[in-house]
Design a protein that fits this description.
Length: 166
């Protein structure tokens, strides 16, 4: 590490998937790169790196965030949820099961971002329409599936979650 790079580094603390973590970053490092390379949480993917594809979506303090557009230092002190969580919460768990059962993924590159985005939807709207799901996932690109199975999976997860409440 050269002198300039060493001076540029700063340690931040976050709570990721329920666990407190501290690690060094630079003033220029994106949140998704910090998660992947600083903390070893490689579930969030890096696609376009400029906010278009949604592969890097994570949840920061209850809001879905593009991990490639947020700087790691901006997340200092934040609560972050990623697809890597061992106990991801009922929405993520139901979505993971439904995506598997409905064959809503092929290569899987887009899937972490899709699931984080859809989990936020299901938290605020337990029974979204297909149109509402399409609208929310319109910022998540999938090159493989054609999207129909993804919409089916989100609806299936919604129904499963509602069934658990009865
Ligand atoms: S990698 Fe962040 S939106 Fe594509
Ligand atoms: S499953 Fe391959 S990009 Fe979506």
């Amino acid at each position: 590490m050269d002198k300039v790079e060493a001076e540029d580094r700063i340690t931040i603390s976050v709570r990721v998937n329920g666990e407190p973590k501290s690690a060094s970053t630079t003033t220029r490092q994106s949140l998704v790169d910090f998660l992947r390379h600083g903390l070893g949480l490689t579930g969030s993917h890096v696609g376009c790196e400029h906010g278009v594809c949604g592969a890097c979506n994570v949840i920061v303090d209850d809001s879905v965030v593009r991990g490639c557009l947020m700087l790691a230092i901006q997340a200092d002190g934040a609560r972050i949820t990623t697809i890597d969580a061992a106990n991801p919460g009922p929405e993520v768990a139901a979505l993971q099961k439904a995506f598997f059962e409905r064959a809503a993924l092929q290569c899987g590159f887009c899937t972490p971002g899709m699931i984080m985005q859809a989990s936020e939807l299901l938290q605020r709207n337990e029974s979204p329409t297909r149109e509402e799901i399409r609208e929310v996932l319109s910022g998540n690109y999938c090159r493989c599936t054609g999207y129909h199975a993804i919409i089916d999976a989100v609806q299936a997860a919604s129904k499963a979650l509602i069934a658990t409440k009865r």
